Amino acid sequence: MNEDVRHIGQDIASMRIRGAGRIAVAAAEALAIAAQTSTATSYEELKEDVRQAAAYLVAARPTAVSLPNAVRFVLVNGTKGGAGTAEAYREAVQEASRAFVTSATEALSRIGAFGARRIKDGDKVMTVCNSNAAIEVMRQAYRDGREFEVFAMETRPWFQGRLTARALAAEGIPVNLIVDSAARFFMKDMDHLITGADAITANGAVVNKIGTATASLAAHEARVRVMVAAETYKFHPDTMAGELVEIEERDEEEVLPAQDARALSGVRVRNPVFDITPPEYVDIIVTERGIIPPQASFFLLTELFGWRITDRDPWER
Ligand code: RUB
């Protein structure tokens, strides 16, 4: 396999490239590299090379459906535009990759514009982890002249909340960094909880960074509105066929470094990195196609993927 493709897969697995949107874009770009650099001369051989790269990339992280959805988009459109010859397929895969990246960028900006309308002067907003889509909503609200204040949960164990706080502060938005367990303490003062998503299921449940479900529960209790900002490629087609979303569990050292673990012998550390917020706790999902209630997820999925979801082959539907 091409070295650059291998590195992109490794960077996704090690979280040097992280966040569902960035992962999707990186995977789409990696497929273009795979097609461009493959030495295959026949259509079948080249297609096989690209499929191998696709399978390798998809295996890098299991939860963010943006990854298989981006790969599916590139493969399906590659085959549509380039079936028959190696040259046509090579070109079509690269074209599909560019199309995915362009539409992902446009989606982000539309989500920002739609979501920003929900933020009013004087609002207080809590957010979790580091979501480009959630940040885009806040950035556009700020650029539209809205004055509001953000409370960023720090998001242990990787502290992605610091990235969010830094990005918002750089924009000029007043931002507070809080420990995750302070979410309920501050929730009563909030007007919105705004999060991104790694996957949204057919029943409207939202899979996002660990801690999102707890914060959403606190928001529900405090009658605070929960806004999920998510591109439509975060909707999970396999959940229509009864599949559950796999929740990634990462290394225990991320929670408890080896030197501290020595003093805790016999203790097992658990490190699930995503959780599931039920649809009852979500008010709106802001997509590039508009704002929908979580209960509309099923219909959006049928529109995106059609009714032919009958098996688990994620590649060439
Ligand atoms: C990132 C995370 C983000 C979503 C959405 O988790 O949970 O909220 O991926 O992000 P990790 P975006 O850091 O483990 O990848 O809106 O940027 O796609």
The computed structural class is alpha/beta
Bound ligands, each once: ribulose-1,5-diphosphate
Q: Assign the CATH architecture of the largest domain.
A: 3-Layer(aba) Sandwich
Strand order of the largest sheet: 3-2-1-4-7-9-10
CATH superfamily of the largest domain: Translation initiation factor eif-2b, domain 2
3D architecture notes:
- This protein has 317 residues and is α/β, with parallel strands linked by helices.
- The chain folds into two domains: 3-109, translation initiation factor eif-2b, domain 1 (Four Helix Bundle (Hemerythrin (Met), subunit A), Up-down Bundle), CATH 1.20.120.420; 113-305, Translation initiation factor eif-2b, domain 2 (Rossmann fold, 3-Layer(aba) Sandwich), CATH 3.40.50.
- The protein has helices at residues 3-13, 20-37, 43-58, 66-82, 86-116, 132-143, 160-171, 183-187, 212-221, 258-261, 297-305, and strands spanning 124-127, 149-153, 175-178, 192-195, 199-200, 206-209, 225-229, 274-277, 284-287, 290-292.
- The strands form two sheets. Strands 3-2-1-4-7-9-10 form a seven-stranded mixed sheet, with helices on both faces. The chain has a three-stranded antiparallel sheet with strand order 5-6-8, covered by helices on one side.
- Helix 3 runs antiparallel to helix 4 and helix 5 packs across helix 6.
- The longest helix is centred in the first third of the chain and has 31 residues, at 86-116.
- The two termini are 25 Å apart.
- The model has no long low-confidence stretch (mean pLDDT 96).
- The structure holds ribulose-1,5-diphosphate (RUB).
- The site of ribulose-1,5-diphosphate has 16 residues, from helix 2, helix 6 and strand 6.
- Residues 18-21, 64, 129, 131-133, 160, 196-198, 208-209, 273 line the site of ribulose-1,5-diphosphate (RUB).
